[in-house]
Amino acid sequence: MANKYKDAEDNRAKLKKASTEEELNELLIQLDKEWNETKEKYEPTPVEELFPVEHGYTYKEYKPESDESIATRVENELRPVSESKKQQLRAAAQGEERKEESRRDEAEAENESQKKSIAKARKEEYDDIENAAVAQGIGRSSIKSGLEGEADRSAIAASEASDSELALKEAEIDANIAALREKLDAALQAEDADAAADIAERTADLIAERDKESNRVTEYNNKVKQDIDEYYKTRQRLLRQEIADYNDRAAAQAEYERKYGYTGEKQENYTKRLDLALDFYSGFDPDVAIEMIENNGYLRSYLGRYYQRLVGAIYSAAYGG
Known about the structure:
- This protein is mainly α.
- Helices cover about 85% and strands about 0% of the residues.
- The chain has helices at about 5-15, 20-40, 45-50, 65-135, 140-260, 265-280, 285-295, 295-305, 305-320.
- Helix 2 runs antiparallel to helix 6, helix 2 (about 20-40) runs parallel beside helix 8 and helix 4 (about 65-135) runs antiparallel to helix 5.
């Protein structure tokens, strides 16, 4: 009997011992975990890794600006530029108008100066007439009166000529100012029209750009949705195939193990499990051990096909065989 179980006893001597059924179960669980990690190396990459639940696609976010917002933004951008141009036009026109008003002031001053000169010349002529009349003894004669009348008419004519010249200059100045103001009004109206056209064109361009971007994002997101739908269809198909392939492999493996038993690394792992169980239950009376084995719900699951070997070994130890 000792020779029959010598190898098994040597293997069991190398294993960690279990002093309680709870420790035994924990050791069996650990070995089962090690086997699961080992066999995963030989399994195909799980679909869950290739196609996780989170698809990884991202929709683009785009909040299109309203027509009203675009129009307001363009207005706020371009209108101040136009107002600045208009202010420059007004300033230039006002400068030209001030020049004309300066000409008016000069003309009025010239007229005033001419009238003073005319008045001075008239007085001097009066004095000359008076002095000549006294010298000739004709201070109250009609000749003197005639000469004075001639001096008056000459002064009046000169004064009227100066006023006429001033009126002509002022009429020209008024016409120039009117023309400047008319030109300014036309320039301001043209600038308003240009600004309105620029604002309308810029607004239309931005709305077109917005629509183009909105359509581009919509097309992109529609494509993303199609990709996501296809992703989950493929994932579901592969999951179903994975389950079917797994079941086929499991059935084939079960049939193989039914005929030939465990092999390779699985055999080594399950042998360790059996040796642990044998080492623990061999320390009890066989009848007690059998009862304990039957009551331990872990053993059938973690020993698999070696469960009956454990039971058989305990019976053999007790009754021979």
